[in-house]
């Protein structure tokens, strides 16, 4: 089967290309890419074995690579399976996933890594690359057989969910992994500072009386791990950086040549600890409430309704809604701004989902006792695009942080739309508004604070190895005018003004 | 799960159905409750301490944490209004018990409870319950978060004694960080126009900016002697012994030396200053026995007023 | 909305005086009588009756205030719970003849609640009822012992009483019709 994806806005960060054009796919490979300049001359291969996909108004980009996902299988199949996770990932535009090792059993021996790859090969629809555990049982004591794990297909190491508390163990892990030329993905948290935590420590936790996880708990660990990476020369990758201080530490380390990379999640780029306040957010504490009934007018649906606000509002959530509990916790607006700046200036290489599906039972309980995590695949792009819509990031950079950036962390050539490269392709509409409905998720994990929120932009079609693995409705069917002004122009224009 | 998507805040708060915190009470509403409490106090002073207002209503005291005083206070309040009051005491968290909090609430719902008075060790638990219970939920203390009825009875006690709240200087001293009483009183007293001073070592209160963000007019101090100057009310909070094990304090002795209410310290505020304590007291730790029983102490009045204030709240919720 | 005056200030004064005389006559003096005004407008009426009695009988009759909110049978049916005001009856009602005073007698439910409230406070030897206006439409077997004026009304009409102690301005009783 051949696919002719036409009239889309091609964004291919690896080739530094952003233009309107057509992509021809055959036998799992990109066969031909026709950019704007040649478009008039482009032939349209109309024959029975070619499906023409009209991508007018949409963006055509290389498939996204997620450095950080919890697929839960083996051992947590009630939360998610590799099959459901990869389908959900496809719906989110991802064609490659790095599977975190906190399964049961954990990926601390080659057999588990092989098992995951085997299940993914049989039942998964996207590429799944296991991440090995740093220590046996993720207990932070004894190093795993890293070389053998790499042989078995592990692309990185992490005790994700747990920080390696013992600095000597971490030093050895870094030194050993340096030999293998794979990154060590560090979950940076000093657990002695976060004992019993429920959310970010700050004004909101103080008001709500919830035990806090201070930003310093992340920062001291990032600082320690950077120092250890410096003396070992290893490649340190900071998982889900969430604090302004963490970004500053990484930026400084990179500037002096330490091999440190970093990722950030869509939710840490967009949501803040005020989401835990839910609709209390609408309640400004300083307000004076004159009228008796007026005191509750602030809950007026007019302000909190589904109309697209200038910026996402958490007002649809009740206070203390456990869907906002995530590790690391949602931080403050200052942190969000610093993370966005880090993403812009390249201090942060990648956007990674930290997709962490949980069952209803684990979430529907007292806030602090709820399992942390957000089911992130299917809202990742929509949430990240809010940065583009707010003019904080240009669309090409966003695509780069989902493709080229994460590929660089894994030390591989970026996915690209170039003749001969594997046809891992995502087509997404950056503009179309939709309302998040977890009931429609392909993931088993319905845990998201975004239920009922309107986002702009969603994946229309995902292709992995030349096969269509996700298609929204009957997207692309039927023909349209050959040349259409793309919405992409608007985004490029906005960027040029800055 | 309840994603919240279907929950329209406007409906949830259109009328007062729950008492979860004092943050959504206007000064006017608090004033009305205080006024109604006066009448309830009169009822409690009668030979027949009962009125038929809530006849046929069922109130469940759902206590996941031991609290004999608060529970009895609510029980007396409910019974004085002729409600059927049932006590449900479950130790430990719902997760440890195996039954989820929501299941417990659904069961009570099915059994016909009209109101839940709930005490829980986790901050925010009443908000979860309010999402799943069709009747009214009254927070009788959740974790470190809120204890609205305690704050209302404190306001009532001060109001009855001093005739006003606006413009008073109220000093709250002790383990502010872990205190739901402090947080609710902060809402109540600031909304009624009092000037609140929180006094504690930093380990028991945290960074000042965290508090000022929500209560900008607040004063925070670690010098009790200084704070007491000109105070109209001083409230000592209970110091849990666990705080020392957590390394938050070097010793009880040192805490007591610098932060306990002694007769000499209270004298700094003057003879008009009311001494309060939400109980139970650690006499000799945060408050000296002679201060607790002095003429300035209104600690027993607080307890007595608790029933009247809780009656006023139960009445209000039933009426809407 | 139209408003028609049925009692002017002078009419009210005369009605109060007449009621006071009837009370004294029916009870053969007022030695054992106490007046209890039902909040809100029964309260000034009770005070006025007491003032007349003080004049004609040379006796200061004790006057109390009764708030019947907690005894209502329609809590929750009439919107937000009203603030409960204090009941102040600074004398023992046991063994006395208690005369409940209210401005308008209508369904009888307020009086029913007042009777419950009174019996919780003690055991009067007798309870009598004095009202300024009886507008009919009783829902309970209750009748007034002393009536200032009987006013036939339709159910959709409203009786409004204004007393200067509560409302300021001129006294008066009005029928209000929704048009």
Description:
- The complex is a heterotrimer of chains A (498), B (320) and C (179).
- With 498 residues, chain A is an alpha/beta fold.
- Chain A is 30% helix and 20% strand.
- Chain A folds into two domains: 2-58 and 462-497, Urease, subunit C, domain 1 (Roll); 61-285 and 298-416 and 432-453, Metal-dependent hydrolases (TIM Barrel).
- Chain A contains 16 helices and 18 strands.
- In chain A, strand 1 and strand 2 form a beta hairpin.
- In chain A, helix 4 (167-180) packs across helix 7 and helix 8 packs parallel to helix 11.
- The longest helix of chain A has 18 residues, at 215-232.
- Chain A is globular, with a radius of gyration of 22 Å.
- Chain B has a five-stranded parallel beta sheet with strand order 7-6-5-8-9. Chain B has a four-stranded parallel beta sheet with strand order 2-1-3-4, sandwiched between helices.
- In chain B, helix 3 links the parallel strand 1 and strand 2 (84-89).
- Helices cover 43% and strands 14% of the residues of chain B.
- Chain B has 320 residues and is an alpha/beta fold.
- Chain C has 179 residues and is α/β, with parallel strands linked by helices.
- Chain C has one domain: Rossmann fold.
- Chain C is 28% helix and 29% strand.
- Chain C is built from four helices and eight strands.
- Chain C has a five-stranded parallel beta sheet with strand order 3-2-4-5-6.
- In chain C, helix 2 links the parallel strand 2 (33-38) and strand 3.
- The chains are: A alpha/beta (498), B alpha/beta (320), C alpha/beta (179).
- The interface between A and B is large, with 54 and 51 residues.
Percentage beta strand of chain C: 25-35%
Low-confidence stretches of chain C: none
Characterize the quaternary organization of these chains. Answer: heterotrimer
Measured between the Cα atoms of the first and last residue of chain A, the distance is 43 Å
Uncertain runs of chain A: 283-310, 479-498
- Roughly how many Å apart are the termini of chain C? 5 Å
Number of strands of chain A: 18
Count of alpha and pi helical runs of chain A: 16
Largest beta sheet: strand ordering of chain C: 3-2-4-5-6
The best one-word shape of chain A is: globular
Helix count, DSSP H or I runs of 4 or more residues of chain C: 4
């Amino acid at each position: 089967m051949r696919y002719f994806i036409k009239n889309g806005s091609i964004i291919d960060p690896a080739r530094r290309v952003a233009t309107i054009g057509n992509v021809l796919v055959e036998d799992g490979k990109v066969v031909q890419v026709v950019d704007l300049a040649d478009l008039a001359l482009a032939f349209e291969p109309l024959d029975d074995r070619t499906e023409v996909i009209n991508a007018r108004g949409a963006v055509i980009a290389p498939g996204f690579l997620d450095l950080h996902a919890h697929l839960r299988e083996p051992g947590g199949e009630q939360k998610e399976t590799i099959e459901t996770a990869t389908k959900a990932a496809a719906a989110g535009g991802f064609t490659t996933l790095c599977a975190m090792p906190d399964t049961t059993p954990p990926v601390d021996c080659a057999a588990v890594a092989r098992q995951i790859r085997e299940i993914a090969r049989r039942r998964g629809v996207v590429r799944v690359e296991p991440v090995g555990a740093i220590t046996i049982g993720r207990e932070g004591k004894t190093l795993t057989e890293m070389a053998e794990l790499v042989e078995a297909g592990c692309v990185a190491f992490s005790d994700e969910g747990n920080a390696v508390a013992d600095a000597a163990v971490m030093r050895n892990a870094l030194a050993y992994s340096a030999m293998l030329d794979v990154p060590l993905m560090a979950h940076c948290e000093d657990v002695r500072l976060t004992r019993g935590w429920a959310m970010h420590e700050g004004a909101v936790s103080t008001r709500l009386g919830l035990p806090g996880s201070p930003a310093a708990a992340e920062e001291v660990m990032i600082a320690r791990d950077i120092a250890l990476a410096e003396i070992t020369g290893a490649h340190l990758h900071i998982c889900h950086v969430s604090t302004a201080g963490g970004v500053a530490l990484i930026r400084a380390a990179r500037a002096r040549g330490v091999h440190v990379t970093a990722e950030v999640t869509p939710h840490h780029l967009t949501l803040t600890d005020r989401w835990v306040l839910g609709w209390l957010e609408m309640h400004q504490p300083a307000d004076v409430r004159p009228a008796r009934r007026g005191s509750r007018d602030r809950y007026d649906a007019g302000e909190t309704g589904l109309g697209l606000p200038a910026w996402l509002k958490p007002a649809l959530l009740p206070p203390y809604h456990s869907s906002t509990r995530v590790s690391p916790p949602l931080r403050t607006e200052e942190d969000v701004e610093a993370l966005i700046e880090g993403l812009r200036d390249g201090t942060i290489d990648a956007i990674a989902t930290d997709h962490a599906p949980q069952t209803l039972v684990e979430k529907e309980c007292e806030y602090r006792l709820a399992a942390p995590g957000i089911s992130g695949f299917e809202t990742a792009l929509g949430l990240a695009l809010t940065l583009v819509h707010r003019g904080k990031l240009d669309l090409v950079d966003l695509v780069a942080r989902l493709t080229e950036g994460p590929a660089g962390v894994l030390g591989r050539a970026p996915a690209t739309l170039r003749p001969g490269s594997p046809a891992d392709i995502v087509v997404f509409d950056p503009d179309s508004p939709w309302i998040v409905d977890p009931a429609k998720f392909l993931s088993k994990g319905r845990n998201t604070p975004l239920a009922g929120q309107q986002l702009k932009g969603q994946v229309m079609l995902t292709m992995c190895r030349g096969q269509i693995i996700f298609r929204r409705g009957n997207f692309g069917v039927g023909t349209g005018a050959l040349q259409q002004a793309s919405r992409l122009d608007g985004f490029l224009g906005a960027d040029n003004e800055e | 799960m309840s994603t919240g998507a279907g929950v329209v805040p406007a409906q949830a708060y259109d009328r007062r159905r729950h008492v979860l915190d004092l943050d959504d009470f206007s000064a006017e509403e608090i004033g009305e409750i205080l006024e109604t409490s006066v009448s309830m106090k009169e009822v409690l002073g009668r030979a027949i301490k009962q009125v038929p207002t809530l006849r046929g209503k069922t109130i469940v005291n759902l206590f996941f944490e031991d609290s004999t005083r608060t529970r009895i206070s609510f029980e007396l309040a409910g019974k004085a209004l002729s409600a059927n009051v049932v006590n449900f005491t479950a130790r430990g968290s719902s997760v440890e018990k195996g039954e989820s909090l929501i299941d417990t609430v659904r069961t009570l719902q099915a059994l016909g409870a009209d109101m839940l008075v709930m005490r829980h060790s986790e901050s925010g638990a009443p908000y979860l319950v309010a999402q799943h219970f069709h009747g009214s939920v009254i927070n009788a203390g959740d974790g470190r978060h809120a204890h609205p009825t305690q704050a209302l009875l404190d306001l009532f006690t001060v109001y009855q004694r001093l005739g006003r709240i606006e413009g008073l200087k109220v000093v709250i001293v002790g383990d502010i960080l872990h205190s739901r009483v402090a947080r609710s009183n902060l809402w109540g007293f600031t909304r009624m126009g009092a000037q609140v001073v929180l006094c504690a070592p930093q380990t028991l209160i945290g960074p000042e900016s965290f508090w000022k963000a929500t209560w900008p007019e607040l004063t925070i101090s670690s010098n009790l002697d200084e704070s007491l100057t000109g105070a109209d009310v001083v409230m000592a909070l209970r110091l849990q012994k666990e705080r020392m094990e957590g390394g938050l304090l070097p010793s009880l002795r040192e805490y007591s030396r610098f932060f306990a209410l002694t007769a000499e310290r209270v004298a700094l505020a003057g003879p008009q200053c009311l001494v309060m304590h939400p109980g139970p007291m650690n006499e000799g730790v945060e408050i000296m026995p002679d201060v607790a029983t002095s003429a300035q102490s209104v600690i027993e009045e607080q307890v007595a007023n608790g029933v009247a204030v809780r009656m006023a709240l139960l009445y209000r919720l039933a009426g809407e | 909305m139209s408003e028609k005056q049925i009692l002017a200030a002078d009419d009210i004064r005369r009605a109060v005086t007449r009621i006071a005389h009837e009370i004294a006559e029916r009870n053969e003096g007022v030695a054992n009588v106490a007046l209890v005004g039902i909040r809100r407008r029964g309260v000034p009426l009770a005070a006025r009756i007491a003032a007349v009695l003080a004049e004609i009988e040379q006796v200061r009759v004790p006057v109390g205030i009764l708030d019947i909110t907690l005894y209502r049978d329609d809590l929750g049916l009439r919107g937000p719970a009203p603030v409960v005001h204090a009941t102040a009856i600074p004398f023992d009602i046991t063994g006395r003849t208690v005369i409940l005073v209210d401005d308008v007698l209508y369904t009888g439910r307020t009086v029913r609640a007042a009777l419950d409230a009174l019996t919780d406070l003690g055991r009067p030897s007798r309870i009598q009822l004095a009202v300024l206006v009886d507008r009919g439409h009783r829902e309970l077997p209750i009748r007034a012992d002393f009536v200032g004026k009987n006013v036939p009304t339709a159910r959709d009409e409203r009786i409004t009483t204004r007393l200067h102690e509560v409302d300021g301005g001129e006294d008066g009783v009005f029928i209000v019709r929704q048009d």
